[in-house]
């Protein structure tokens, strides 16, 4: 193995410490702290674990955490009514609706009902449009976390060849916008891309977000490239359940110059950026200076 390991877990801890610092100052100066509402519909065990950990870290940073757990058979009307209440609640500065929603619910309708100023996931069409036009937006947490790690590792990204593998609205597309904003030459590749490994081997920065366990092997990677592994896949291995990324870590690490591990890479950064976005939303709502280094 030759690649440097980009320690997302440690970096995320420093971001959370900065968030906590800023929150403490806001409490002093404003007499109130940012609040984050998380909405979970249904009983998916992975989602429950994840929502619990978000709530815990929200409180550890000194912010208010509001958890709304709704039954799997919640109606669209009831969910929309909850969103309307959270939009109107002055204690709530950020709203996150855990995705995916059960199939009978229309997630586009739900997300676009969130006040864009409280849309800490950055999924509302207004925020997507603001990001795409280079205006001040709420930026999706996972791509923001990846960008922070890349800037931290490289300093400037200007002129670098970046390939984003995956075209989802929550990772691939916003990741491409952020890399473009930092003056990378950006290619979005996906399952129908011809000669995929040939395309990804041109990348100085390769972001893998396809949701297919260990699909990206060393032969997809240009020697010395930086590999950001967004995948979080639970697989059975030797009778045990474990997490693997979209990259085959061993073979990629032999070729790459730097790589993020799974777990301990992008995942913890996603949660740290959610907390950072909540502080940003609070500051914008109160017309205060935004925290340095916690936004795109
Ligand atoms: N509206 C919405 N926004 C999201 O941001 C969102 C979502 N829905 N739905 C589910 C996915 C998944 N997601 C993760 C974030 C962090 C870890 C994380 O911290 N993972 C740890 C490992 C945790 C473990 O050991 O299970 C790690 O990678 O080191 C995992 C998964 C955010 N999501």
Automatic annotation (TrEMBL):
Pfam families: THF_DHG_CYH, THF_DHG_CYH_C
Family to which this protein belongs: Belongs to the tetrahydrofolate dehydrogenase/cyclohydrolase family.
GO cellular component, one term: cytosol
Subunit and partners: Homodimer.
Entry keywords, A to Z: Amino-acid biosynthesis, Histidine biosynthesis, Hydrolase, Methionine biosynthesis, Multifunctional enzyme, NADP, One-carbon metabolism, Oxidoreductase, Purine biosynthesis
Gene Ontology annotations of biological process type: L-histidine biosynthetic process; methionine biosynthetic process; purine nucleotide biosynthetic process; tetrahydrofolate interconversion
GO terms, molecular function: methenyltetrahydrofolate cyclohydrolase activity; methylenetetrahydrofolate dehydrogenase (NADP+) activity
Catalytic activity entry: (6R)-5,10-methylene-5,6,7,8-tetrahydrofolate + NADP(+) = (6R)-5,10-methenyltetrahydrofolate + NADPH; (6R)-5,10-methenyltetrahydrofolate + H2O = (6R)-10-formyltetrahydrofolate + H(+)
Every Tetrahydrofolate dehydrogenase/cyclohydrolase catalytic domain range: 6-121
Protein name in UniProt: Bifunctional protein FolD
EC number: 1.5.1.5, 3.5.4.9
SUPFAM superfamilies per the UniProt record, alphabetical: Aminoacid dehydrogenase-like, N-terminal domain, NAD(P)-binding Rossmann-fold domains
The protein's role, per its UniProt record: Catalyzes the oxidation of 5,10-methylenetetrahydrofolate to 5,10-methenyltetrahydrofolate and then the hydrolysis of 5,10-methenyltetrahydrofolate to 10-formyltetrahydrofolate.
């Amino acid at each position: 193995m030759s690649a440097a390991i980009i320690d997302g877990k440690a970096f995320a801890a420093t971001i959370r410490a900065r968030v906590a610092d800023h929150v403490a100052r806001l409490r002093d100066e404003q007499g109130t702290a940012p609040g984050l509402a998380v909405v979970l519909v249904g009983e998916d065990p992975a989602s429950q674990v994840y929502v619990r950990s978000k709530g815990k870290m929200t409180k550890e940073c000194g912010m208010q955490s509001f958890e709304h757990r709704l039954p799997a058979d919640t109606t669209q009307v009831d969910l929309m009514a909850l969103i309307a209440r959270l939009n109107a609640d002055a204690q709530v500065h950020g709203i996150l609706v855990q995705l995916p929603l059960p199939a009978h619910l229309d997630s586009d309708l739900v997300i676009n009902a969130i006040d864009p100023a409280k849309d800490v996931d950055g999924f509302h069409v207004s925020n997507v449009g603001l990001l795409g036009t280079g205006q001040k937006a709420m930026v999706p947490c996972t791509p923001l976390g990846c960008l922070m790690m890349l800037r931290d590792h490289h300093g400037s990204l200007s002129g670098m060849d970046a390939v984003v593998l995956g075209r989802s609205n929550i990772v691939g597309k916003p990741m491409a916008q952020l890399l473009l904003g930092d003056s990378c030459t950006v290619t979005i590749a996906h399952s129908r891309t011809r000669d995929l490994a040939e395309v990804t081997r041109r990348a100085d920065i390769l972001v893998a977000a396809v949701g297919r366990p260990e699909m990206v092997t060393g032969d997809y990677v240009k020697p010395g490239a930086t590999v950001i592994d967004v995948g979080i896949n639970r697989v059975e291995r030797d009778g045990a359940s474990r997490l693997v990324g979209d990259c085959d870590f061993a073979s990629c690490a032999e070729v790459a110059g730097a790589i993020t591990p799974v777990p301990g890479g992008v995942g913890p950064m996603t949660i740290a950026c959610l907390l950072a976005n909540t502080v940003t939303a609070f500051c914008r709502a109160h017309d205060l200076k935004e925290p340095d280094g916690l936004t795109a």
